[in-house]
Amino acid sequence: MRSKALLSIFLILTAAALIGGATMAWFTDDAKLARAELETGTLYIDAELNNIIPMPDREIDNVNPGDCATVCWEIKNTGSKSAEVRVKLEGLWEDGLDAGNVFFAPKPGSGWVMHEDEGQTWLYYTGGPLAGTYGGAEGGTVELCVVVAFDGVLTDCAYQGKEFTFTGTAEAIQATNDAPESQWPGFEEATAPGYNDDHLREYFLTGAGKDMICYHGENDEPPGPSEPKIITMVIERIDHDETASYSYIENPNAGSVTWIKQGVGYYPEYYPAAGYEKVGIYSQVPDDPRNIHQYWLNIGPGAPYVVPDHDVTLYAIFSKIRPNLQ
What's the whole-model pTM score? Predict the structure, then answer.
């Protein structure tokens, strides 16, 4: 099954805690799940930003009773501080159908565990904090892969032809000064040596999903070759009116693109962030104002992009909306 992801806009969140009589402001970041087809959606977190970043929604359609799927997100720390990470997921059926027929758990052995905090189930990353970028270091990255199961008995005819969407929030918090222990009730227990979350994985261990290959694997056979994918880089074009020129910077917050399958190809749907507008899809970032259209790809409904036999990087360019001076 294919998954899609839609990156959304940053919102602001401020977190503070009262500890030992002193007020402490912890660096945190939240992210809500977004859409990107043919690739694992990358979620950029920064515990210094004190904001909410929408994480990629994953959509699963054409579901049959007893089916399972594996859905993955990549989470990258782009802030200078090391950060601990946790994720809360929610499943939604089209037309508001009951989601009680859907069960999920992180892939076994992936470094992610489930823990119930105040009536909500969170997924905690137990592999230690993600490194920050201080001093020019490479920010840490972790992949979250979740197995989703559609129960064979509970998925009746009412679900036929319906679409299921994974949504949720990823949170990051600075790893120092006991910030995770102070702000996240389940962190200390979930990350302690010997913690066991089997009671939250019962469906896959002893229940109807105990034989599902998505969770347990299939005969230890090596996976087949993966399909070529489109890797989308989001670029902001900066207009310099005084020199009638442009410059370009990578900015994942300028917008996002969903690739829609059409026949043997794909075409983009653009989702500019607030205050931005689309420029287009390019095979390479223009390096001269005179060749601005040289790398532009005329892709759209009726003119899909056919992925070659290898991974390809395309550039989704957005620019800030210029004020109407009239």
Answer: 0.56
73-88: per-residue pLDDT in tens? Answer: 888 888 888 889 999 9
Gyration radius from the chain CA atoms: 22
Residue 73 tokens read as 């997100």
| Secondary structure (DSSP) of 230-270 | EEEEEEEEEEETTTTEEEEEE-TTSEEEEEEEETTEEEEEE
**Among candidate residues 65, 142, 154, 153, the one with its CA nearest the CA of residue 110:** 142
Is the CB of residue 234 less than 8 Å from the CB of residue 316? Answer: yes
The rounded distance, in Å, linking the Cα atoms of 312 and 89 is: 30
Q: Distance between CA atoms of 277 and 236, rounded to whole angstroms?
A: 10
Degrees (nearest 5) of the Cα angle 314, 319, 324?
155
Nearest to 180 by CA among 293, 7, 29, 44: 29
Query: Given pLDDT bands bounded at 50, 70 and 90, which one contains residue 203?
Result: very high
Q: Tokens standing for 188?
A: 């200390």
124 Cβ contact list (under 8 Å, min separation 6): 85, 86, 112, 113, 114, 115, 184, 186, 187, 190, 191
Q: Where are the domains of the chain?
A: 11-216, 230-320
Q: What is the DSSP string of 77-111?
A: E-SSS-EEEEEEEEEEEGGG---TTEEEEEPTTSS
| Unique residue bearing structure tokens 């799927």 | 69
Q: Could you give the CA distance from residue 54 to residue 74 in angstroms, rounded to a whole number? A: 13
Tokens (6 digits) for 40: 């694992």
Q: Which two tokens stand for residue 195?
A: 């913690």
Distance from C-alpha of 60 to C-alpha of 150, rounded to nearest angstrom: 11
Tokens of 37: 């087809």
